[in-house]
Amino acid sequence: MLTFHEEIMVLLLHDENGTFLPVNEHTLNSALTGAVLMDLAFANRIDTDPERLTVIDPTPTGDPLLDRTLARIAGEATVTNTRTWIETLSADEASADPAKTIREAALTSLVEHGVLERREEKFLWVFRSRRYPTIDGKVEQEAKKRIADVLFSDEVPDPRDVALICLVDACNILRTIFSKKEIDRVEPRLEQLRKMDLIGREMASAIADIERAIAIAAAHTF
Amino acid sequence: MDIKEETVGSALVVSLDGRLDGVTAPDLQAQVVAAVERGDSKVLLDCDAMSYVSSAGLRALLICARRCQQAGGKLALARLRPECHSVLEMSGFLTVIDCHDTSEAALAALS
Q1: DSSP character for B52?
Q2: Interface check B92 vs A, CB under 8 A
Q3: Residues B19-53: pLDDT tens digits?
Q4: What is the pTM of this model?
Q5: Alpha-carbon gap, residue A158 to A187, rounded angstroms
Q6: How far apart are CA A88 and CA A190, in angstroms?
Q7: Distance to chain B for A199, nearest Cα, Å
Q8: In terms of DSSP bridges, do strands A127-131 and A46-48 run parallel, antiparallel, or are they unpaired?
Q9: What count of Cα atoms within 13 Å lies in the side-chain half-sphere of residue A70?
Q10: Contacts of residue B22 in chain A, CB cutoff 8 Å?
Q11: CB-based contacts of A113-116 (< 8 A; 24+ apart in sequence)
Q12: What distance in Å separates residue A214's CA from the closest CA in chain B?
């Protein structure tokens, strides 16, 4: 089973050419940090409520990225909430570009698992570009099917699918999977699911606040 | 958390006493999933003595409700304390899991 940070990375790639869909840097930082916290929560290492995020089991998971994050949280003397951890980890001083660190770890793992292949290409004989085409597209298709199955039904959803939908929604890439008409149709269901994962809720709230701050700053500039 | 089971009519009543969190949620999930697998798909969780619910607890409730539904039954909650009710309400869980003020009302809804 893929981790959430691996699964969202697969969905953030263009099907055919293996390049990344455009997502704002701050959104990607918060979403990938949220994905790592979801991975730790589903691995029963951390637990959350509206006021606190606590380590319930500091045993390493075996995934270096998750274990670094787990050790960081476990090493903090003060217990704080999920929102603060998303903001802290997504602006981590130890890493100049937290999203890049998570993205590289996810891509390396996906290549090792045979989900993606890494292609280095040169254009104009000088500039290098790296692409990650999917090998057979199966993982991506299965993830999209799970998302569709939940969105287009009234059944009690699986918590993993709820968390994945929160990530896809936060990155604003549902529009790459469904038509506008389909998204409009499932909006009430989406609104219901957005609340159901406590980490997903905090992640979406952090992203919305940053977007609001950027909009206010832009309005004052012009 | 202390988890006790009893059969009332066609429903399995599971009484929860204590905190439903990352430590105790796997026990509740395993117990309800085992009950569904042996044919008890109408399950009432009596939450009168449940003092706390975390995100791991919410996930366990969702999995239990999903398993009951997939088996043709239903999961219902009864007698949630205000502090737990507010967490379930805030997270939208009360839109997918029925919650009743009394066990009698929950049992009537399950029958």
Answers
A1: E
A2: yes
A3: 999 999 999 999 999 999 999 999 999 999 999 99
A4: 0.93
A5: 18
A6: 27
A7: 8
A8: unpaired
A9: 23
A10: 41, 44, 46-47, 56-57
A11: A113/A2, A113/A6, A115/A2, A115/A6, A115/A10, A115/A139, A116/A10, A116/A13, A116/A18
A12: 28
Largest separation between any pair of C-alpha atoms in chain B: 33
Confidence grade of residue A222 (pLDDT, cut at 50, 70, 90): low
Tokens (6 digits) for A190: 């989406």
Domain boundaries, chain B: 2-110
**pLDDT at residue A119, rounded to an integer:** 81
pLDDT, tens only, A16-51: 677 888 888 889 999 999 999 999 999 999 999 999
Tokens of B53: 């619910």
pLDDT, position A93:
53
All domains of chain A in start order, with CATH: 4-214 (1.10.3630.10)
- Neighbour-count burial of A30, counting CB atoms closer than 10 A to its CB (0-12 exposed, 13-18 middle, 19+ buried): buried
DSSP-assigned letter for residue A13:
B
Domain B2-110 annotated CATH 3.30.750.24 = yes
Residue of A nearest to B52 (CA): A49
